[in-house]
Amino acid sequence: MPAAPVDLSVVVPMYNEQEVLPLFVERLRPVAEAWGVTYEVLCVDDGSTDATPVLLQRLRREWDAVRVVRLRANAGHQAAISAGLARARGAYVVTIDADLQDPPETIGEMLHVAREQHVDVVYGVREDRSSDTAFKRVTARAFYRSIRALSDVDAHVDAGDFRMMSRATVDAVNSLPESNRVLRLVVPALGFPSASAGYRRAPRAAGDSKYPLGKMLRLSIDGVTGFSIAPLRFATWLGLLGGVAALVVLLYAVVAMLLGNTLPGWTSTVVIVSAVGAVQLLALGILGEYVGRTYSALQARPAYFVAHDSLELEMPTPVTDDDADAAFDRVVSQTRT
């Protein structure tokens, strides 16, 4: 039999969070008990290699609302959130990281805003990002403004993956065929009615950041190529500009030849060849990125694999008609013997 739905699901992706997990639970549990709704805390263990799985199993015995979904291998932050969304039972689903940079106390405000304003999405907006480095603040704003300029996605500049979604929104996200989702762009792209709840972003409570510069760059590339064809148009314009420049150089060479001013020019030749080669390589790189995304989409490989779900382990296995017939046959055969 299917598990009973709840009012609110709190999806928490985790990867090697043994240091911050006890602090996160200490903050979340009293807040959750004050919500006055039925809820589940769905912890998605993204293939942790430290003591996080052990701590989660211990926590599950101490807190009935905790549900643990463990992935077979590390699939990445966005894939872990997608795994949580696919299995969440709540009428509303909120996603939050365990590092306590996003305060659990804001979840209650989000739920109130969603119900009072009848919106499908409530974004957690960072009104104060003084805890982030200047480099991160500048690059984040540049990224979101670039996305707005290059595509039709109205992404919030100071909103990350801390958001609350209605069941309709979660079902819409789960129905999308793409596997490498950038959820902070996918959700705004749906265009569902939304609101926001502001908060102050705190420093990471413990442990190390799971989003180093390399992963942030990969996320940015996935975001741009997944929601805009502007880079392809940019490559086209580069090709056109290169063609115009080549035509100008050709005309100059013809005129110089007619005037008898032709001299062997090693420097100009090298500069022109280098410039054209750089443009070609850039265009090929952009095309290759889109071809790679198309190839990955055609392969249709799952973004993650679930090892186990504690809720399914606790639920009794339903008896099918075939199982009942087999049991009946066994009883009849034993009676005859």
From TrEMBL:
Give the matching InterPro entries: Glyco_trans_2-like, Glycosyltransferase_2, Nucleotide-diphossugar_trans
Q: Which residues cross the membrane?
A: 237-259, 265-287
Location in the cell: Membrane
Q: How does it sit in the membrane?
A: Multi-pass membrane protein
Superkingdom of the source? Bacteria
Q: Tell me which UniProt keywords the record has, alphabetically.
A: Glycosyltransferase, Membrane, Transferase, Transmembrane, Transmembrane helix
Positions of the Glycosyltransferase 2-like domain:
9-169
Q: What residue stretch is flagged as signal peptide?
A: none
What is the similarity comment for this entry?
Answer: Belongs to the glycosyltransferase 2 family.
Instruction: Output this protein's name.
Output: Glycosyltransferase family 2 protein
**Protein species of origin:** Phycicoccus sonneratiae
